């Protein structure tokens, strides 16, 4: 009897974990195994990681609010009611992508490439279509398996202290999400839905054809990164053209707006700053740190809110053992861009080097909220706890750092020595 009861209870739990979603194409309700709140939580969780990967949020509220308003205008006509959010990021790549649950990211490089508002509307509508057709959830179910996905979803919602095993799973979900590729059928579906959303929101759907043609023309010399996840054969442009011809288009659809051009003009003005930043990054990668430092300062002179360049300056100053100055740069980064991991992380490292352990722990905990799987956070948490005499907590963090380490971290030999001192050896 008790067993039956348990079975029945677990069946109830199973039912409760299922939810229905409206199929955006048919309007019918269908069952899904990944409940929307978990899909949303997963997208929310990996948003700062995606933004960090794309070099931070573009630091201009006028640019952000323009894309936010345009995105929300289109999102309003879509069937899924989700906490949609739109971001422009600093990357010079020509790219756009969505996270599960309605977070949509477009790059500075994309806007610089486009020529009118309806082209940007097309990209946003296409990404909104992926979210509405639940393509992310479906692909994640397929690549990760539903049980792992549900486990992680529940864990993210629960917000418990994560074990080493869960951290590794989170890292693999992050990597999967940031490189997610959809099938050709899903792309076709996103094009079709995207066109529908554009028209319903009042935008000229020919903007999509113009965008695709623009990308196609760039393919030979500077292939947009967007093409690596969105193959653009001639057939796709033809298909979209055919779809539009079959549509019953209302008059006065929006093609362009002065605001689009005002925003683009702003990005054109700060472009030299990002070019100096890119050069700095290349020099930094070659180990030419002093020249890199100069370039990053130049980038900030050209655009005094370039937080990506500031983060590099903080990092180089830490390497030069100048933690006081590094701290002030890192704090500036956190004020300009609360999403970017580097501001919080470098602030934590600088505070540790200054012997301000409690404050360092607080900053590193903030860093952890951004990217929970970044190994360095745990190494420095460990160092802080060790300095405070809390050995058990130190070891726990060192273990996590070791699990997540990629092998090239400068602190790795020190970490192993410290663990060995406590009788913990790894082979
Ligand atoms: Zn797509």
Question: In words, what does this structure look like?
Answer:
The protein is mostly helical. It folds into two domains: 21-246, no CATH class; 262-421, Tetratricopeptide repeat domain (Serine Threonine Protein Phosphatase 5, Tetratricopeptide repeat). 68% of the residues lie in helices and 5% in strands. It has 21 helices and five strands. The chain has helices at 2-17, 36-53, 61-75, 108-113, 117-132, 135-144, 146-158, 164-178, 184-200, 206-218, 226-229, 234-246, 258-285, 289-302, 307-319, 323-336, 341-353, 357-370, 375-387, 391-404, 412-421, and strands spanning 19-22, 29-32, 85-89, 96-99, 103-107. The strands form two sheets. It has a three-stranded mixed β-sheet. It has a two-stranded antiparallel sheet with strand order 1-2. The relative contact order is 0.09.
Structure in a nutshell:
The protein has 427 residues and is mainly α. The chain contains 21 helices and 5 strands.
